[in-house]
Write a structure and sequence with these properties.
- The chain is α/β, with parallel strands linked by helices.
- The chain contains twelve helices and eight strands.
- Strands 1-2-3-4-5-6-7-8 form an eight-stranded parallel β-barrel, surrounded by five helices.
- It is globular, with a radius of gyration of 17 Å.
- Helix 5 crosses helix 7.
- Bound molecules: 1,3-dihydroxyacetonephosphate (13P).
- The site of 1,3-dihydroxyacetonephosphate (13P) has 14 residues, from strand 8.
Length: about 260
């Protein structure tokens, strides 16, 4: 399939790092380094950092993202943040279903599905995370698991909805471990996801669908991963906290040779 149909998206997931002041500092360091990027650049910062990030990003080519949202617009949900709240701060993207949320905060495929609908209704773009644990990979159920995660997450959504969704394939065993999936492993699962989108929707939708890889992507391995036919970008944790490293990944994505 022709990669030129798709835009490359490099998103930083800062996780629970950086105070509001540190956020403005990191963004100000990052802005000039990625101003020439020939790809979409996103930073997904902690909720409390969003106002400062929004101000620091003004007039730049970097888009603002959040790392979670609630599926209701408002109400008695102590400690939660809704999509309209995020929108009001200039947020364009929201990560949904990250494995850390599934693992530590009881996120299920069902809540993921509700959150995606809420985000799309509220005008946000979604980065939907899927991925298997090491035990699941070793048990040979990677494809089955990812297929279930995606089918439930996307249930009831139209081809048009899919234009505002990116899937990030993040093998849990590669997150924060320094153990990256090989470029072949990443491409294999991303290709599987594209095939699944083609079966669930149609070939054109699958051709235009953006699929990222995430899990220990860094300045050294980004080029090889991003060169793969089915890898359309990256969701980057640790390396997104260093302006220099993140900008090298953005550069690798911008210079990527289309196959
Ligand atoms: P690392 O890049 O730190 O492995 O994190 C990946 C990730 O979870 C991005 O969402």
């Amino acid at each position: 399939m022709d990669k030129t149909n798709r835009k490359v998206v490099i998103a930083g997931n800062w996780k629970m790092n950086k105070t509001p002041i540190e956020t403005a500092e990191l963004i100000n360091e990052l802005k000039p380094k990625v101003s020439q990027a020939d790809c979409e650049v996103v930073v997904c910062v902690p909720f409390v950092d969003l106002p400062n990030a929004s101000i620091a990003l003004e007039g730049s080519n970097i888009k603002l993202g959040a790392q979670n949202c609630h599926f209701e617009e408002k109400g008695a949900f102590t400690g939660e943040i809704s999509v309209p709240m995020l929108k009001s701060l200039g947020v364009e993207y929201v990560i949904i279903g990250h494995s850390e949320r599934r693992q530590y905060f009881a996120e299920t495929d069902e809540t993921v599905s509700k959150k995606i609908k809420s985000a799309l209704n509220g005008g946000l773009k979604v980065i939907l995370c899927v991925g298997e644990s090491l035990e699941q990979r070793e048990a040979g159920i990677t494809f089955e698991l990812i297929s279930t995660q995606i089918k439930i997450a996307l249930a009831g959504l139209s081809e048009n909805d899919l234009k505002n969704i990116i899937v990030a394939y993040e093998p849990i065993w590669a997150i924060g471990t320094g153990k990256t999936a090989t470029a072949e492993q990443a491409d294999e699962v991303c290709g599987f996801i594209r095939n699944l989108i083609s079966q669930l929707y149609d070939e054109d939708t699958a051709k235009g669908f953006v699929i990222q890889y995430g899990g220990s992507m860094n300045a050294k391995n980004a080029e090889e991963l991003l060169d793969k036919e089915n890898v359309d970008g990256g969701l980057i944790g640790g390396a997104s906290l260093k302006a220099e490293d993140f900008s090298i990944i953005v550069k690798a994505a911008s210079e990527q040779k289309y196959v």
